[in-house]
C-alpha cells in the first residue's frame, strides 16, 4: 500500500511513472533483508547510480548519525561509489564490502554508507550484516523498488509506527527528481500528513514503542537527471530536511538527519581529457526542484510507513503498522 493508492496526494507536483527514485533513468535499488529467529530484524539497502563519478552534494540537518565519505563529496563535489544504507552498528562492514566490490584494483574508494538505529526490534550488537549480504543487495538491484520492512529499513520505526524504506518522485519539466529514505525518527504527537496533525488525531490508541520520544534518524538520498553542479546538489539535499519538517520531524538532539543528492545530467567526468564540457541548470530555474524534493521526501516517508507491516523482534518488542483505514479516518477529520 502506498499513499496514492489511498487517494492521498502530497503537494501539487506530478510523480514519475513508478513514483520512485528509479524514475531517474538507470538508477537502481537493491535490498538484502535479514529476519531470523526472535531477534534479528535488519539488513542493507543499496542505491546504484547509472554512472560514476557524478556531481553530488550533501546536507546535515542534525549530526547524531553517520553517512560516510561525505568529506570527499564536499571536497570534490563527486559521488564515486554506490550508496549503502544499513543499521548503526553495520556501517563498517557495508562500507568495506562496497569498497571491495566497486574499486578498481589499482584505485581507491571512499564509499558513502548511511545508518539509522534499529536496536528496538533488532539485536544490533550481534552485527549480523555481512559482506555477502552487501554483495547480494548489489546483485539484486533493479528499477523495481521495494518499500517498508526491507533492506536497511527492516527494523526501523517512524513517528511511533513501523516504517523503513520509502520512495517517491516528481517531474520538473523534462527532468525528474526522485527521493529514497530510510525513516526511523519522530514522535507520534508531531506526526503530520499534508499539514494534517494525524498523530494527535490518532493519539496513543495504537501502541508506540516510545510515546512522546522525538529521537531517531533519517537518511535521504535525492537523485535527479537535471544537469546540476555540486553547489546545486548541496541545495537540493538541504531541501530534503523541509520534507522531514512537514512530516513533523524536529531534527532532535539525538537524531541523525543526513541527506545526499546526486545529479546524472553530466556524465564522463573522468574522461581523461584536460577539459570537460559541462551543462548547468541556471540557478534561477532551480526553485521547482526544491519543491519536488520537499514533496517527494514527504511522500517517501509516508510510503515507508504505509508499506511497512507490524513487526515483533528483540525481547518481544513490537512496532505496529500505520493501518490505511486509521490514516484515512484521521485525514477525514481535517476540518
Care to describe what's here?
Helix content is 24%, strand content 25%. It has helices spanning 70-76, 91-102, 131-140, 198-202, 230-247, 287-307, 324-331; strands at residues 28-36, 40-48, 54-63, 78-79, 83-87, 112-116, 157-158, 161-162, 165-172, 175-185, 216-224, 256-263, 311-312, 318-319. Strands 4-3-12-11-10-9 form a six-stranded mixed beta sheet. A four-stranded mixed beta sheet has the order 1-2-5-6. Helix 2 packs across helix 3 and helix 5 crosses helix 6 (287-307).
What's this, in brief?
The chain has 335 residues and is of the alpha+beta class. It has a single domain, classed as L-amino peptidase D-ALA esterase/amidase (4-Layer Sandwich).
